[in-house]
């Protein structure tokens, strides 16, 4: 059975034990308000789906996601954007269902933060990963808190401070991607059917809650302070606004270094 809620489509497979969730609605599957709200609803619905044992999450078309909407990062909208993104990631954490990110093409910014919060990342061999926010004069709040959980502090700082993009081979080498595949959707579904669908759904959810207890605690404790840094101090600087405006105007930023 397939259902669609705005930019998100849910295909229920294996008698409802496996959901294939596809993000769409815009070029590059930009993580905007509509997509965030749609995914939040999916993960909240997943909490109530008693037989569900795995979710595959992918982008429609050639890319996973170009990242969050730059327009929604501007000072008059950024607080609402962060609130919606927190709700989405909180719903993903709270549903306690294993989520496998299926990454093709670009997986950048908020898209990579979303993938990092998933339990497993299966990538196409031509996939690209990056946290490019620093190039726009801002930083990635969620990646600042959780990326080191997956790749270690040094590598997380490299990606967040340089803003560089890495290929799938490097992502696999540093532990950002768990598997590379010519057909990442097929590989992700096969992994779920082999390793997750034979399990008790209730036991699996409790195992997810147990193994992620530390991450959930850090997310709840550390992210609010990082977002206050973002909203109260970063967004009060001239360079944060300049970087975002320069991107939207397709020009090089003119940094004032304050």
Offer a quick outline of the entry.
The protein has 258 residues and is an alpha/beta fold.
Describe this structure in words.
This protein is of the alpha/beta class and 258 residues long. The protein has a single domain, classed as 2-enoyl-CoA Hydratase, Chain A, domain 1 (Alpha-Beta Complex). 48% of the residues lie in helices and 17% in strands. It has ten helices and ten strands. Strands 1-2-3-4-5-7-10 form a seven-stranded mixed β-sheet, with helices on both faces. The protein has a three-stranded mixed β-sheet with strand order 6-8-9. Strand 2 (8-13) and strand 3 form a beta hairpin. Helix 4 packs antiparallel against helix 9 (213-233). The longest helix is centred in the last third of the chain and has 21 residues, at 213-233. It is globular and about 55 Å long.
Give the helix proportion (percent range): 40-55%
Rounded mean pLDDT is: 96
The string of secondary-structure elements, in order, is EEEHEHEEHEEHHEHEHHHH
Number of helices: 10
**Spatial strand order of the main sheet:** 1-2-3-4-5-7-10
Termini distance?
A: 53 Å
Main beta sheet, described?
Answer: 7 strands, mixed
CATH architecture: Alpha-Beta Complex
Beta content comes to: 15-25%
User: Total strand count, please?
Assistant: 10
- The first-level CATH class is given as Alpha Beta
Quick one: overall form? globular
Domain module tally: 1
Report the uncertain regions.
Answer: none
Radius of gyration: 18 Å
